[in-house]
Amino acid sequence: MPNKKWLAPILPYLAIWAGLFLFKSAWLTLIGFHAAILFALAFVRPSIPINILFKSKSRKWILISVLVCSTSGIGLYFLWDVFGVVPDLPARLESIGLNSSSWFAFIAYFSLVNPFVEEYFWRGVLGSGSKKLHVGDVIFAGYHALILLGRVNPLSILFAVIILTSAGWIWRQISREDGGLLAAVLGHMVADFSILMVIYWMCNS
Description:
single chain; 205 residues; mainly alpha; 10 helices
């Protein structure tokens, strides 16, 4: 893999930092993150066809991915207090633009668009056919630490990065076995949707 591919994650990381800490906007963070990935892809010029996002050789892998990822929101719900989520999270989220009028649009965009962008980038372009833990799995998980910073306790951030590194590895193995990214995309959708719905529920109940 050409070394320049490992420069590609720098832009998405910078976009997350700028969106959250400079502009303090959830929407600018997400859209900037996706724009940064597109710029990175233009820099890398990957040869992987875009239709790999819609490829799957077996429904078995889709089912496994969806079932495994459906535990994401469930786990967050039952471990909410354990994670040490800050009491003023609703106010913090509202301060970055996630209020009653924008939450559902944000959840829809995040759940329906983000999985395609991320899976093509992290598991497609920066992926690997290795069965072992890969540096791309860790880089994928790492940017989530920026999102969680100041919102949960430090040990929970470490735990989340470990879990997300494992998720990246699992999605990569499913994609390797299935010969495409569709199963990973659909599992990612379920994970994103369930997690965001739990956050919305806990912040508005």
